[in-house]
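FAQ

Q: What does a record look like?
A: Structure on top, sequence underneath. For example:
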């Protein structure tokens, strides 16, 4: 373990650029002026009780790990193995440094959510928070998680906009039915063509009904809803009309036959 002074930590934190996660690195905060406050700690405190306090013997995958806040928390809870992946090398550099300073053994990989099959293994707990709405293909991502990496539990979070009500949806409707689609509680993904909150990667923002429907359709049973945007899910059977297909060397889930 390297013995870091506070001055050395502070200098390295500044060298690694702007941090989105405010981490406490031996008394040095990484994002003390975060616009959301002490983030993500302020959010984590609202649903931390939904995750087992003792993760001994469990494996954890943190997708879109950013600077590693949740990976670090899972290791503190005794997880036997924690793997954090992100498509941004700058975030991974921050995560590696944070884990080194805090003397926590975590594996970091440069992968996107669409590449999780490359990990070649399943995990007891998969964390998928703050990622869905940044994806052009959000349902594909959930399908890939269920197919390749979630063995038991999924901790999920997405920004939500629109109605917080959830309608009881029938399994089928006649072609003549239009009214149901105008209901605030019908599952709805809002597409952002330009930017939202000055972020060009905010592509799809679901309402609550849509989040829950997407999770179910990809093969996840919601077992807890501890915070407005957070769900704890368990792997269950996928919707039977979905099947894995391969297109141009990439496997996708599709509802139709492929020639």
């Amino acid at each position: 373990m390297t013995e870091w002074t506070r001055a050395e930590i502070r200098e390295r934190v500044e060298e690694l650029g702007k941090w989105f996660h405010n981490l406490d690195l031996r008394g040095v905060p990484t994002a003390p002026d975060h616009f959301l406050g002490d983030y993500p700690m302020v959010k984590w405190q609202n649903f931390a009780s939904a995750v087992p306090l003792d993760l001994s013997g469990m494996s954890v995958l943190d997708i879109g790990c950013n600077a590693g806040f949740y990976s670090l928390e899972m290791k503190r809870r005794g997880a036997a193995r924690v793997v954090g992946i992100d498509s941004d090398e700058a975030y991974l550099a921050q995560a590696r440094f944070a884990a080194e300073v805090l003397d926590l053994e975590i594996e970091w990989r440069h992968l996107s959510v669409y590449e999780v099959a490359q990990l070649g293994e399943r995990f007891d707990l998969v964390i998928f928070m703050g990622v869905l709405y940044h994806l052009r293909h959000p349902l594909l991502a959930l399908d890939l998680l269920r197919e390749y990496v979630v063995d038991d539990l999924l901790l999920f979070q997405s920004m939500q906009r629109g109605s917080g009500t959830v309608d009881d949806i029938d399994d089928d409707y006649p072609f003549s039915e239009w009214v149901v689609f105008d209901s605030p509680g019908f599952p709805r993904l809002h597409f952002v063509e330009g930017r939202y909150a000055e972020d060009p990667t905010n592509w799809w923002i679901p309402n609550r009904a849509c989040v829950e429907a997407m999770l179910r359709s990809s093969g996840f049973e919601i077992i807890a809803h501890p915070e407005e945007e957070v769900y704890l899910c368990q792997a269950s059977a996928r919707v039977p009309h979905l099947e894995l297909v391969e297109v141009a060397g990439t496997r996708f889930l599709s509802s139709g036959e492929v020639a």
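Q: Is there anything notable about this one?
A: Residues 53-254 form a domain with the Rossmann fold fold (CATH 3.40.50.150).
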